Write a sequence for this structure.
């Protein structure tokens, strides 16, 4: 990719964790002369200006997108269609429109019809995030070393795709290409299912009558606390993902449940060998993830051990 | 608890993550004049001496336990009965025997019959750990700020219980008391179920034909990688827990599966409101865990962002 990653004007619609981090990464890499931003909440727009990851805040998405060479829609997936419809008449000839949504088939379905001739729509998805949300959650390093998946539609402009790829690389990402349908299946297992299971177990624990909530919290270092991180992600974002990647999620949930029943049976019948074999082969996956640079090898994710006693800090 | 936490001689049977960390914590707090240790593997015993978290390595558990004022059995739960039977004839009058097992009913069943008159058996369980195992995995701070649950049996010697509590506090723990049966139920939800679910989802992902293992690894930052940490814990330890806390685990698995079916139904029928409500209430649990000092508030557990690109280090 030797395309030029620079843009004159970038518009970021949605100024939360992803939009904010993108603004910071653009500033760090000096990738745009001007960043305009829009968020539905007045407080968020103000805060984004204060922090400085956008240069100007617009009061509508259309105004932010006007004159932009690159428009990145970073709202929850369910809002993408409405944003696209609103900005449609204001898009500049030759502009690139992309997004950061965690599902791609639904985004293409919702945004596609609102892309005017001469504007290039290239759906994208940076596989990066934290459990936090809002304009203060973003930081420039979020995309460093993480993959960004582009899912260009048939007939997409090759130069536009190359330029967007160069842009994400300049933001720290490694870029990959995928069919939209395959993207949605991959994400269902690496991201959607883990989050749903985390939400589910936290809900199960919260509902118990035999174990109190205070006990769950006190003894959460036994493993439970790891799940609560994912289960504290943005509810709107996750609702929209569930509603827009239904088939792939139901497929993965079905497989997971089947496997869980098999494990339940091994426990009921005391199949120690079967359990041992399962618990052994999963170790190799962790090792590969660490070797691929996608997680830290430090025990407990390298959590600061002193967090246990905040009063010491 | 104003009991004296010091012991003349401590024996640690099992020199992995927990036994090793305990040795380090005893050294840090100067809580014993001598620590004898035993592990089945010759290499582990040698390594423990090299690292220095024990003072002498015995070639049998019996030899390690001889003359000890405190014997802490830190083996997987399935080995506890055999260790207790072996050390039984060698235990000193007045000695305290305890363990660090993640189930307590089965430990009482297996160890109880092997405790001679005049020896005090006080089952215990420090709720602390990492995904790593072996003698090199231990460190003195593991128990700092974490809870240690003691489950004394009826008629237990009060001085022995108080002394063991003072000892764990001197190792950095906060001490709590519980009925053994209730302990096993609490641990089933805060520790056993999370680990089993993590093992299960990693297994499900590993079995897919439609998504490659390399894709799962590359894009694991989407959430999946968090589960692989728990799923890389010691397989023997977890097999033994499953075999020895069957009823409580099956009860929790049953509830989890029921809730998962309800969520699956919400996804299938597009119940956005139901999903949003579930995803919202789980956030409060995370907040409470952080307030209780049981996890870090730093995004992504405070993982070093540069771990993404190990070549930079």
């Amino acid at each position: 990719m030797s395309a030029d990653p620079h843009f004159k004007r970038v518009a970021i619609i949605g100024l939360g964790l992803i939009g904010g981090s993108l603004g910071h990464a653009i500033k760090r890499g000096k990738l745009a002369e001007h960043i305009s931003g829009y968020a539905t909440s007045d407080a968020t727009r103000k805060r984004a200006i204060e922090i400085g990851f956008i240069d100007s805040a617009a009061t509508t998405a259309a105004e932010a997108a006007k004159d932009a060479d690159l428009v990145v829609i970073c709202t929850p997936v369910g809002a993408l269609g409405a944003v696209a419809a609103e900005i449609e008449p204001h898009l500049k000839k030759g502009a690139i429109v992309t997004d950061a949504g965690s599902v791609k088939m639904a985004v293409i379905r919702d945004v596609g019809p609102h892309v005017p001739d001469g504007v290039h729509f290239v759906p994208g998805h940076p596989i990066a995030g934290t459990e936090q949300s809002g304009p203060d959650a973003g930081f420039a390093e979020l995309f460093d070393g993480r993959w960004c998946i582009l899912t260009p539609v048939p007939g997409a402009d090759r130069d536009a795709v190359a330029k967007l790829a160069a842009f994400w690389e300049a933001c720290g990402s490694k870029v990959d290409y995928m069919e939209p349908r395959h993207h949605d299946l991959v994400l269902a297992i690496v991201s959607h299912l883990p989050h749903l299971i985390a939400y589910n177990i936290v809900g199960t624990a919260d509902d118990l009558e035999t174990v109190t909530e205070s006990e769950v919290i006190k003894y959460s270092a036994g493993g439970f606390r790891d799940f609560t991180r994912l289960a504290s992600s943005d509810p709107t974002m996750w609702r929209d993902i569930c509603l827009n990647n239904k088939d792939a999620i139901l497929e993965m949930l079905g497989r997971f449940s089947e496997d869980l029943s098999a494990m339940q049976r091994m426990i009921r019948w005391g199949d120690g060998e079967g359990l041992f074999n399962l618990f052994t082969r999963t170790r190799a996956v962790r090792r590969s993830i660490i070797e691929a640079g996608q997680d830290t090898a430090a025990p407990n994710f390298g959590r600061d051990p002193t967090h246990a006693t905040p009063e010491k800090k």
Notes: The CA atoms of residues 150 and 177 of chain A lie 5 Å apart.
